[in-house]
Amino acid sequence: MISLWRDFGRVRLRRGVVRMVEMKVFGLFDASEVRVEDPGLKKVINLNAKLMLKSHGRIKWDPARTKVNVVERLVNLLQVPGSRGKKHRIITSWITGKHTRCTNIVIDAFKIIETKTGENPLKVFVKAIENGAPRDETTTIVMGGSKYPQAVDVSPRRRLNLVLRYFVNGSYDKAFNKKATIVEALAKEIMLAADNSGESYAVRKRIDTEKQADAAR
Fold first, then answer.
1. What are the angstrom distances between the C-alpha of 94 and each of 24, 99, 144, 183, 195?
2. How many CB atoms lie within 10 A of CB 31?
3. Domain covering 2-215, topology
4. What is the spatial distance between Cα 63 and Cα 65, in angstroms, rounded to a whole number?
5. Cα separation of 96 and 182, whole Å?
6. What tens digit of pLDDT does each residue of 139-196 get?
7. How large is the average pLDDT for residues 132-136?
8. N or C: lower Cβ tally within 10 Å for the chain?
9. Using CA atoms, how far apart are residues 125 and 19, in angstroms rounded to an integer?
């Protein structure tokens, strides 16, 4: 008999002995040692360990999505990798809308990250989020019949939304009509963002967005 707690599982053994077992994401990756250093993202990055990251829409009314594990949010966004705002590009054969298939893509990408870096892939993923999340962006204001760009601060919730979208779009571009698979492209994008490399799509988008905001001040 196994009952799941928030961070730990209680396993009932023979003769009534109960042993505490630490829960891991997908049963593979330990989230207990991962820390979010960015103070603005601490409250929006959910790293609660679960065996299966699938909320089935039960918490869809959470406005900040803080109850949804950040890895599950990546899996959900991976199901529509061709989205570009109001535009929509072709969906490739490796995406069929199946949640299980997208989950396996993320798991395989994390295994590649663990093999190449020798670190916890969740730790690398959180570092990539911190490096790729923009802090400033521009909005349009209307004054006297004219439109002007105005620099604004980005809320923590939108910072996380943008960087996850950048990861998916960047890995999709690296895998579309290329030799690299989506698993390899996603792993490479996360590792480049964790290193704050200019080759990362998310880092480039963050730099461009912040430059535009600086020019509009």
1. 27, 12, 50, 10, 28
2. 22
3. Ribosomal Protein S7 (1.10.455)
4. 6
5. 14
6. 989 888 888 888 999 999 999 999 999 999 899 888 878 888 999 999 999 999 999 9
7. 93
8. N
9. 30
142, β-bridge pairs: 147
Q: Which of 34, 112, 46, 116 is nearest to 74 (CA)?
A: 46
| pLDDT above 70: percentage of residues in the chain | 80
Place of tokens 């905001």: 213
How far, in whole angstroms, is CA 187 from its chain's centroid?
Answer: 12
Q: Are 202 and 166 in contact (CB under 8 A)?
A: yes
DSSP characters over 50-75: -SS---TTTTTT-TT-TTS-HHHHHH
Alpha carbons 152 and 65: distance in angstroms, whole number: 22
C-alpha–C-alpha distance, residues 124 and 117, integer Å? 9
Sequence-distant (6+) residues with CB within 8 A of 167 are 74, 77, 128, 132, 186, 189, 190, 193, 201, 202
Query: In degrees, to the nearest 5, what angle opens at C-alpha 14 toward C-alphas 8 and 20?
Result: 15
